[in-house]
Design a protein that fits this description.
Order of helices and strands: EEEHEEEHHHEHEHEE
Number of helices: 6
Number of strands: 10
Strand content: 25-35%
Strand order of the largest sheet: 5-4-1-2-10-9-3-8-7-6
Radius of gyration: 17 Å
Distance between the termini: 36 Å
Length: 206
C-alpha cells in the first residue's frame, strides 16, 4: 500500500515540486520552518490545490473530495470545536471498543467530559492523534503530532503510533532529529521548494 505523489502543490504564494513515494511504515518528513511540509500533507489530504499524480495503493486520490480519501490526518494545529467535549470529538469516528482502547492508550480518560477550549496544547494533540488513528486508516498524515508533548510522553505516543498503525503508510513531520531517527523507517526532505526522498543519514545542518 504505497503512496505516490508527483506534481505541484500551491498555497499562499508557496509552490512545492513533489516527487515522493512512501511505503508501509513511517516516512519522516523534515525541513526548515515554512519550507512546505504542512503544504505537502494538506495537498495529499485534498485541502490545497495539487496538479499531478496522487495515488495510494493504486487508487487515484486527486479527484476525490477530502472526506472520500480514507486517510487519517492530525494537523499541526489540532482542529477542535470549543463547545464540544473530548468524548463528542471521538464518538463519530469509531465504535466504543476502539475509542476506549485509544482513550486508555493516550491517557484521555480524565478529559472525556471536558470542553476542548480548556485543554492544554499537549492534551489537544493527544486528542488529535486519537481521532486520526480511530478508524485504523491505511494512510496516516501526522504534522508535528507530538510537538507540545514532553520527551517521555512523546516517546510513548510515538511507540503507540508505530504499534497501532502497523502496516499503514505514515507520513510524520517533525523538527526533532532525535524523534526523526527514532520514528523513521524512511526519510524525505522539503528544501528549496522541492520534496525528495532522503537517502543519507539525518544529521544536523548548518
Amino acid at each position: 500500500m504505497s503512496l505516490v505523489i508527483r506534481g505541484i502543490a500551491q498555497a499562499g504564494g508557496t509552490t512545492l515540486d513533489i516527487d515522493l513515494e512512501a511505503h508501509p511504515g513511517v516516512t519522516v518528513i523534515t525541513g526548515a520552518s515554512a519550507a512546505g511540509k504542512t503544504l505537502l500533507l494538506r495537498a495529499i489530504a485534498g485541502l490545497h490545490p495539487f496538479e499531478g499524480t496522487l495515488t495510494f495503493d493504486g487508487r487515484e486520490l486527486g479527484a476525490l473530495d477530502p472526506n472520500e480519501r480514507g486517510l487519517g490526518y492530525a494537523p499541526q494545529e489540532p482542529a477542535t470545536w470549543p463547545h464540544l467535549s473530548v468524548s463528542s470529538h471521538l464518538s463519530p469516528f469509531a465504535d466504543r471498543t476502539r475509542i476506549d482502547a485509544l482513550v486508555l492508550a493516550l491517557d484521555l480518560a480524565s478529559l472525556l467530559t471536558r470542553k476542548t477550549n480548556v485543554l492544554s496544547g499537549g492534551e489537544r494533540q493527544r486528542l488529535s492523534i486519537a481521532r486520526a488513528l480511530a478508524r485504523k486508516p491505511k494512510l496516516l498524515l501526522l504534522d508535528e503530532p507530538t510537538g507540545a508533548l514532553d520527551r517521555a510522553t512523546r516517546e510513548r505516543v510515538g511507540d503507540l503510533i508505530k504499534r497501532d498503525a502497523v502496516g499503514a503508510t505514515i507520513l510524520f513531520v517533525t523538527h526533532d532529529l532525535t524523534e526523526a531517527r527514532r520514528m523513521g523507517d524512511a526519510f524525505a526532505v522539503v528544501e528549496s521548494g522541492k520534496v525528495r526522498a532522503e537517502v543519507r543519514d539525518l544529521e544536523p545542518r548548518d
